[in-house]
Amino acid sequence: MLDFFLQPPSAPAIPSARCRLAGKKIETRSTNDLQLSEKLACPGFPKKFLKFYDRVYALVDDPATDSIISWGKSNKSFVIWNQEELIGRNMLLRFHCRTITEFISKLKHKGFKEIKGSSGGQLEFGNRRFVKGQPELLWLMHAIALDARMRKRM
Fold first, then answer.
1. How far is 57 from 126, CA to CA, in rounded Å?
2. Rounded CA gap, 126 and 30, in Å?
3. pLDDT per residue over 8-38, tens digit each?
């Protein structure tokens, strides 16, 4: 079932390294998924599966929330600067979370990794496919996180 969604219907095969997802090989330009082009964006991938990722991306990318949550220095992570304000403005409700702990748990479940070394009580999370200016990689991030969860159950 997942194989149908993992293979972009209109994407041409790009010679290079291969990623294995749920037993399906997906062509990429290199082993670094950050170099994927728009050609690998999956137009047939159901948007309903990407709502969480889209919402996180929109929140982080919104300049109005930069004092609360914004992109990290590398543009491959995001920093929660003010946890109290994030909760106080009910921003977590769009993720069906009431506490910061629930939100962190969902982030980890969806493939985000907590980046250690943040100072001053700030939280930083990242994923090499969560990149500023490249929302087309979100479907791949979802597919890989889903595959990891499925493998963990086996």
1. 11
2. 20
3. 444 433 333 334 444 444 444 333 333 333 3
Angle at 148 between CA 49 and CA 38, to 5 degrees: 55
User: What are the boundaries of each domain within the chain?
Assistant: 40-154
- C-alpha R_g of the chain: 16
pLDDT of residue 4: 44
Q: What is the dihedral of CA 73, 77, 78, 79, to 10 degrees?
A: -60
pTM for this entry: 0.69
Q: How far is CA 121 from the centre of its chain?
A: 23
CA distance to 3, 62, 90, 110, per residue, from 74 (Å): 32, 17, 27, 20
Backbone angles phi, psi at 30, to 5 degrees: -155, 180
* Of 35, 87, 91, residue with least CA distance to 60: 91
pLDDT confidence of residue 37 = 32
CB under 8 Å to 76, separation ≥6 — which residues?
34, 126, 127, 128, 130, 131, 132
> Which parts of the chain register pLDDT below 70?
1-46, 118-119
CATH topology of domain 40-154: Arc Repressor Mutant, subunit A (1.10.10)
